[in-house]
Design brief:
- The chain has 75 residues and is mostly helical.
- The chain has one domain.
- Helices cover 69% and strands 5% of the residues.
- It has a two-stranded antiparallel sheet with strand order 1-2.
- It is globular and about 30 Å long.
- It starts with 6 loop residues before the first helix and ends with a strand.
Length: 75
């Protein structure tokens, strides 16, 4: 399976979300914009779920990347 997002892009997004101290709703919106910018879609609920898992797995980029890849759909 080909990755939708590069590891660098996902790491940059993750670091930005953690650094800015956004709540789950704001982080979910940022994730939705990131995904849409790359030509994919994600539901609001799924984006918020991915964001909430980020807080629990602060040191695990691979886990965040996998969740993001799995949650997105081709538009």
């Amino acid at each position: 399976m080909q990755e939708k997002f590069s590891a660098f892009e996902v790491a940059s997004l993750r670091n930005h979300l953690l650094r800015c101290g956004m709540d789950t709703f704001e982080a979910g919106d940022m994730i939705k914009m990131f995904v849409a910018h790359h030509g994919y879609a994600i539901s609001t609920e799924m984006a918020r779920e991915v964001a909430s898992k980020l807080e629990n797995n602060v040191n695990n980029i691979a886990c965040f990347h996998e969740r993001l890849e799995t949650a997105t759909l081709v538009m």
